[in-house]
Amino acid sequence: MHQLHRGCAGSAKTRQAAGPTLGGVNIRERLRDLVQRAGGSRAGAFLYVRVLPHVDRPLLRATGGRYSTSVGYPVLLLTTTGARSGEPRQTPLVYGTDGDRITLVASKGGATSHPAWLHNLRKHPRVTVLAGARSGEYLATEATGAERDRLWQGAVRFYRGYADYQRRTGGRQIPVVVLTPASAAR
Fold this sequence. Notes:
- This protein is α+β, with helices and mostly antiparallel strands and 186 residues long.
- It has a single domain, classed as Roll (Pnp Oxidase, Chain A).
- Helix content is 38%, strand content 24%.
- It has six helices and nine strands, in the order αββααββββαββααβ.
- The chain has helices at residues 12-17, 27-40, 42-62, 116-123, 145-158, 161-168; strands at 21-22, 25-26, 75-81, 88-94, 96-98, 101-105, 126-130, 136-142, 176-181.
- Strands 4-3-7-8-9-6-5 form a seven-stranded antiparallel beta sheet, with helices on both faces. A two-stranded antiparallel sheet has the order 1-2.
């Protein structure tokens, strides 16, 4: 899970290209490390959950899902159907991959309650993703058991802030969601 994507800081391709350096340190790697530390804090979680999504929604739409405010992490725009309203709801989320599937972590920055997008896809599991070449229709399921454990461990290796979030949840187990391409789920 959470394999790094082409062109993201930290990916093998980025390391091979070395990227810009400052004093011999890869700037992209350094920025990614700073993002991890900041995002794991309460203030950083607030920023990523409450502020940056308002910037990322139009930015992702304008760039076909190619660019977001996230440094070194792939971000998609998830469109769910509101559980109560039936209206489309869009949420920018960091994502990982597991083969042709997309994986999402319903952390909500370590809040004690689940994010609204999780409630929405539980009621309406057919979702739309805007994420460059991975854009399309998907069916959402929650990972359970050994699969959830494997995907969770991969997510924590990818972004260590998830472990900090889990400690702050008040006992809520953070769900891991798997999006399977709708064409493959038929």
